[in-house]
Design goal:
The complex is a heterodimer of chains A (75) and B (507). Chain A is an alpha+beta fold. Chain A has two helices and four strands, in the order E-H-E-E-E-H. Chain A has a four-stranded mixed β-sheet with strand order 2-1-3-4. The mean pLDDT of chain A is 89. Chain B has three domains: 68 residues, Elongation Factor Tu (Ef-tu), domain 3 (Beta Barrel), CATH 2.40.30.20; 274 residues, Rossmann fold; 128 residues, Lysin, CATH 1.20.150.20. Chain B has 507 residues and is an alpha/beta fold. In chain B, helix 10 runs parallel beside helix 13, helix 11 crosses helix 12 and helix 13 crosses helix 15. Classes of the chains: A alpha+beta (75), B alpha/beta (507).
């Protein structure tokens, strides 16, 4: 069974959840996945999905981290 | 308003614009347990053994164990921020160190980061830490000498470029001194030196650095350090880092000398990691692959043929023994890997014989091919003379009246031993060694007072330098003592001895 965790900054509505679940089911090819929806304010915004040990991080926090890393490594 | 103030925001926004913000799938893992610098992690699918893993806040860990449901990591820093349940991610990078020509004269840690307060090294090339040793066809036999500047080594235990010669002995017998003396002697030898400090005190690192700086040796030396207060993982990696730096110069066709000080501590650091990772332990609680740990390191020391650049890496590993026990696990392992060993003994050290080399037990298996002819001419009989002397000396302890021949042999032996004494930071050039040794083995020291031999040597060298420079030049040029030089040398020594009666035995 594929373990899926979806993290967002604010709690998602049922409609948003079903849209995300459907999208993930299509992406992973297993129709009966049941993602864990986690509310984590530290991500600031956007959405982070972890499928087993694959992570897709589209949160604001991750983007800011990337900008920080870019600046630190060049200064 | 200064010009830089208006320049800064533009460059900053430029940098920010360059940031790649696309979302890419990343392989991540969750920390299950953490302690003693070891982490057990679930996830991290497709991670490779030896890969670097990003644990956040600019710190990294190294993958050492791949198990069915988890991965064993060893931290390369303190990683104090890490908690169980944290997410860590793969980097896809194998451990490597950024090297450039500018690394010469610098002090770096096991990951190649600056330790001397100067700017980080701008990498010209990334050298991987774990690499396969040069193949059989790329190698060439040892034929060029590596002059240590130490009389007893260069004459009787000669080291060639590309050789691996072990320095072994108890604590406080002058192991490091021999290695450092050798580095000091490379000033005009076109050799790059790498000194790897493993698990030693920071104070000794700082002393070493200061000494090498004062003597101008940092112009061709790189220091790599993982001191006692660094993590076991860093101590485990430091020799490989040093070697990766050496290989950077090897690829450029340079000759490199690398000193591992010391591999006993290295083995202990690896034992610590292995026990914490719960790998099965063997003799002396070392893991089963501790031999491979050192063999894969020392096998990368080599002399390459011209087709492969013609460079060389000469390795001087150091092993500390306990109570002269060379049959302990790590000493026997390293003795069997290296091409010879230099034995240092506490008894000799305490009796004033410095360097405290036990010439009888020390060997060099390949170096004699690299010795210059002049040195062979003078040192040929020396090892034999000294062996005979030791035998006679042991025997003579029991009898008071000896025949004249035995007495003469004993006297000669005592003087040979005296002439081998040398301050560790006073290396001698090979031609100087030859003229000194010539006098000793041809009996010119027999009338000299045994206790004044060191003063004799000093004066004698000054005399040769001031009045017989051509003699030294001839030895350097011809690489051997030609007949004409030999007769001038004989005359010069006889002359010197008549000029300096103060060194003679009082009748």
């Amino acid at each position: 069974m594929t373990k899926v965790v979806v993290s967002t900054a604010i709690e998602l509505s049922d409609k948003q959840r079903s849209v995300i679940t459907a999208a993930l089911a299509a992406k992973t090819g297993s129709p009966d996945i049941a993602p864990d929806f986690v509310t984590d304010p530290s991500v600031l915004g956007g959405i982070k999905v972890i499928i087993d040990s694959q992570e897709l991080d589209g949160t604001l926090r991750a983007r800011l981290d990337k900008v920080e890393h870019q600046l630190v490594s060049h200064l | 308003m200064p010009k830089s103030a208006s320049f800064l925001p533009a460059s900053l926004s430029n940098l920010i614009n360059q940031t790649d913000l696309n979302v890419k799938p990343e392989s991540v893992g969750i920390v299950i347990s953490l302690g003693d610098g070891i982490a057990k992690v679930s996830g991290l699918s497709e991670v490779q053994a030896g890969e670097l893993v990003d644990v956040g806040q600019g710190e990294f860990a190294l993958v050492l164990n791949l198990e069915k449901d988890s991965v064993g990591l060893v931290m390369l820093g303190q990683a104090a921020h890490l908690r169980a349940g944290d997410t860590i991610r793969r980097t896809g990078k194998i451990l490597s160190v950024g090297v450039a020509d500018s690394i010469i004269g610098r002090t770096v840690d096991a990951l190649g980061r600056s330790l001397d307060g100067k700017a980080e090294i701008e990498a010209e090339k990334n050298m991987v830490l774990e690499r396969v040793a040069p193949g059989v066809m790329a190698r060439k036999s040892v034929s060029v000498p590596l002059q240590t500047g130490i009389k007893s080594i260069d004459s009787m235990i000669p080291i060639g470029r590309g050789q691996r010669e072990l320095i072994i002995g108890d604590r406080q017998t002058g192991k490091t001194a021999i290695a450092l003396g050798t580095i000091l002697n490379q000033a005009d030898q076109n050799i790059i030196c790498v000194y790897v400090n493993i698990g030693q005190k920071r104070s000794s690192l700082s002393q070493t650095r200061q000494l090498l700086t004062e003597r101008g040796a940092m112009d061709y030396t790189v220091l790599v350090a993982a001191t006692a207060s660094d993590t076991a993982a860093e101590q485990f990696l430091a020799p490989y880092t040093g070697l990766a730096i050496a290989e950077f110069f090897l690829e450029k066709g340079r000759d490199v000398l690398i000193v591992y000080d010391d591999l006993s501590k290295h083995a202990q650091a690896y034992r610590e990691i292995s026990l914490l990772l719960r790998r099965p332990s063997g003799r002396e609680a070392y893991p089963g692959d501790v031999f491979y740990l050192h063999s894969r390191l020392l096998e990368r020391a080599a002399r390459l043929n011209e087709k492969h650049g013609g460079g060389s890496i000469t390795a001087l590993p150091i092993i500390e023994t306990q109570a002269n026990d060379i049959s302990a696990y790590i000493p026997t392992n390293v003795i069997s890997i290296t091409d010879g060993q230099i034995f240092l003994e506490t008894d000799l050290f305490n009796s004033g014989m410095r360097p405290a080399i036990n010439v009888g037990n020390s060997v060099s298996r390949v170096g004699s091919a690299a010795q210059i002819k002049a040195m062979k001419q003078v040192a040929g009989t020396m090892k034999l003379d000294l062996a005979q002397f030791r035998e006679l000396a042991a025997f003579a302890q029991f009898s008071s009246d000896l025949d004249d021949r035995t007495k003469a042999q004993l006297d000669r032996g005592k003087r040979l031993n005296q002439i081998l004494k040398q301050g560790w930071d006073k290396p001698l050039k090979v031609n100087e060694q030859v003229v000194v040794m010539y006098a000793a083995v041809h009996g010119y020291l027999d009338p000299i007072d045994e206790t004044k031999i060191q003063d004799w040597e000093k004066e004698y060298l000054e005399y040769i330098h001031s009045s017989h420079t051509a003699l030294l030049e001839s030895i350097t040029k011809e690489q051997k003592i030609v007949d004409a030089t030999e007769s001038t040398l004989k005359e010069a020594i006889a002359n010197f001895n008549t000029l300096h009666p103060e060194f003679h035995l009082s009748e």
